[in-house]
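Handout for the seminar on molecular recognition.
Each group receives one record of this type.
Step one: identify the two inputs.
Step two: read the structure output and locate the region that could contact 2-acetamido-2-deoxy-beta-D-glucopyranose.
Step three: write two sentences on what you found, then compare them with the reference statements printed after the record.
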Amino acid sequence: MKNNPKVEDNFPWDQTMRNHFTTFPKFLISSILLISILCIFYTVSFSNSSNKDLNIITAVHGGREEVAVAPPPVPSPKPSPSSKTTLRQIVFGIAASARLWDHRKNYIKLWWKAQMRGVVWLDKGVKPGIDDHLLPQKMISGDTSKFKYNNPKGHRSAIRISRIVSETLRLGLDDVRWFVMGDDDTFFVPDNLVRVLSKYDHNQFYYIGSSSESHLQNINFSYGMAYGGGGFAISYPLAKALAKMQDRCIQRYPGLYGSDDRIHACMAELGVPLTKEPGFHQYDVFGNLLGLLSAHPIAPLVSIHHLDKVEPIFPNMNRVQALKRLNIPINLDSAALMQQSVCYDKTRSWTVSISWGYTVQINRGIFSVREMEMPARTFLNWYKRADYTGFAFNTRPVTRHVCQKPFVYYLSKVSYNKVMNQTVSEHVQHQVSNPDCKWKMADPSRIERVEVYRKPDPNLWDKPPRRNCCRVLPTKKKGTMVIDVGVCGDDEVIELR
Ligand SMILES: *[C@@H]1O[C@H](CO)[C@@H](O)[C@H](O)[C@H]1NC(C)=O
Ligand SMILES: *[C@@H]1O[C@H](CO)[C@@H](O)[C@H](O)[C@H]1NC(C)=O
């Protein structure tokens, strides 16, 4: 309540709040509010400011401060600040353009759910579509022509986009903990976004996202910047602080290129560093994401960006179809999505790497886990080079040796067995001509399908990160490999031999 109430007057909170309650007797609300305010006042004045008391106060206010200006009627029971963040408490602001809307809306439809809240911010109006009920509401961004923009390479729409968080805040939605920004070509895994954000206290200042895969991009922009397409989250109080200064801040940086570097510049002025979460993926790459997605960091996968720049993530289908397929494992066990486990078929001397919900790869020979956890360079960097120095993380080359080419099995279907409480994923061999290998060892080409069993664990990320273990199980099924994936047992270690 230390903020200047004048600034808050600019926000249309009270209007939105009032709309909800027109049917309620106004005097009753006013008296309840008066009593609540008095209670709060006395709690503040007379209790020692132990943490417990402060928690009670924020609980009454729902963690917000507008009460001081226009006391809102008390709607549904307010969650305590320690309660787990829900999807509804995250409000999305999606940057879109009218020109690409008809194409890009198909990506948003893949992850958007009716219970979510958010706005697609457009530069101008688009025709209503028959699928509008499957998409967030659309709004036109405020006029930004008065702002200076003089970057020779970029486009001044960057200013409009950088103001999305502030403009979304000004809608005055209730019970918001986080604002999440994304592009129209960003695919989110909403449940994993909830998992990541619920680790942080939304009553504090947080700026959460990730940097680029491209070292050069990070040098040009900053390693401390959250890349907008990968998506980033700003806590409610930070969004409020940003909204108060952003328009002045934008005017101080007319030479910047994009929207996310403008946000970063304002964050730097506010003194709030980037909290890096490795599950947000800008994916400043071209080509095949196979290498990256089959060696995902041990963290929940939150987003995939640049859907139009990379190849469809499953072969022989278009981009939208491929992401629809990914939605099947996401609906069954989102926490485990793209989690890599590595194990060995000791009798046949094969290394098996699983990326849950996506691929199984069988390699002839024994590779260490530290090698397998490095993404193979199946993709090019942003400057269209395959050079390993171009990346901001370790990579390994795609092997040229005919015997070391991995056999890739893509997910074909997944189901959940209620009795066993486990998912069964079926993977089929990607039909590519197998180069002739003269090694005198078992040939994985005989394996046509791989079955992966895993017990879903919705609380996987409440524990410190740890890679799951996998085990190659004996089977009599011809041409099939059966693998169990799950929490490592006591003393279970993935050992070479
Ligand atoms: C980033 O740096 C490279 C190499 O100096 C340059 O070619 C490229 O245009 C730069 N990109 C931006 C957006 O500044
Ligand atoms: C299935 O197993 C997981 C992990 O042991 C457990 O958390 C979950 O509650 C179980 N679900 C059911 C329906 O039994």
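Reference statements: The longest helix spans residues 26-46. The first strand starts at residue 90 and ends at 95.
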